[in-house]
Amino acid sequence: MATIELTEANFETHVKEDDILLVDFWADWCGPCKQFAPTYEAASEANSDITFGSIDTEAQQQLAAAAGIQSIPTLMAFREGILVFAQPGALPAPALDQVIQAVRDLDMDEVRKQVEAQETPEG
């Protein structure tokens, strides 16, 4: 599957509806972003069960701000609507493969319990 462009109009839908969504925040002027792009595209073609999206931080400034993006490229991974990974910097292919496998291997029942525990005030 090729990488899809994510915008304010479709971002939330993909987060909610896609089992696994990887998101690459980038900009045209960013050298490391351009270096990471072929690696990300190759991973998208090798992992057709995952949705790979990209967000142009120049065109989608509000979305980048809402996501708290402070440096690019930044890679985020959502699984079943939950943010499970976020890291700035261009990853080499083996590291990207490790992230993908780790996201696949997550016990989502355990992740939901952890999220619920963080959201529930103690007392």
Keyword list:
alpha/beta; 44% helix; Glutaredoxin; 123 residues; 5 strands; 5 helices; five-stranded mixed sheet
Overview of the molecule:
By secondary structure, the protein is an alpha/beta fold. The chain has a single domain (4-119), classed as Glutaredoxin. The chain has 5 helices and 5 strands, in the order E-H-E-H-E-H-E-E-H-H. It has a 5-stranded mixed sheet, with helices on both faces. Residues 1-105 form the Thioredoxin domain.
In short:
The protein is α/β, with parallel strands linked by helices. It has a single domain (4-119), classed as Glutaredoxin (3-Layer(aba) Sandwich).
Question: What are the low-pLDDT stretches, counting only 5+ consecutive residues below 50?
Answer: none
What is the 3D shape? globular
Strand order of the largest sheet: 1-3-2-4-5
Compressed to H and E, one letter per element, the order equals EHEHEHEEHH
Assign the structural class, choosing from mainly alpha, mainly beta, alpha/beta, alpha+beta, or little secondary structure. Answer: alpha/beta
First and last CA, distance: 47 Å
The largest sheet, given as strand count, sense and whether it forms a barrel, is: 5 strands, mixed
Rounded mean pLDDT is 94
Q: How many domains would you count in the coordinates?
A: 1
CATH topology: Glutaredoxin
CATH architecture: 3-Layer(aba) Sandwich
Residue share in helix: 40-55%
| Assigned CATH class | Alpha Beta
- What's the CATH H-level superfamily name? Glutaredoxin
Keywords: Disulfide bond, Electron transport, Redox-active center, Transport
Protein name: Thioredoxin
InterPro entries: Thioredoxin (IPR005746), Thioredoxin-like_sf (IPR036249), Thioredoxin_CS (IPR017937), Thioredoxin_domain (IPR013766)
Organism: Nocardioides cremeus
